[in-house]
Amino acid sequence: AMNLNYLSLLDADALKQVIANFDRHAIHHPQMARLSQQKLDAIERLETTPVDRLFTGIPVRGLASTLSIHPEPFVCEGEMYLLGAVLSHFLSLYASVNSFHMLTVVNTESQESWKWAERTGQHP
């Protein structure tokens, strides 16, 4: 079992490595491995800052991350959106239960962005 440190996931290179580790198709399919690597290489930056929000009147500190992705290796923007949706859920799994994480994904070519709502942490 992997013991992932939440804060280490908030570094672009570390996040790319974790995603690559979960890519089981790449082990047996070289073409899939190349496509996956191209998409990982499209992740340009991951910037994270602390933020405070009120949840039912109680102030809670969490983290807001902005993931900047170049669209070239993606078939369509829907693929970029899907990656963001999965990562939004994944990162919340490692945030502490007394915290939250919110993700924004930015298309570095068009500057279009998608923002997911705050997800409360799931990690004890």
TrEMBL record:
<protein>
    <submittedName>
        <fullName>Type VI secretion system baseplate subunit TssF</fullName>
    </submittedName>
</protein>
<dbReference type="InterPro" id="IPR010272">
    <property type="entry name" value="T6SS_TssF"/>
</dbReference>
<dbReference type="Pfam" id="PF05947">
    <property type="entry name" value="T6SS_TssF"/>
</dbReference>
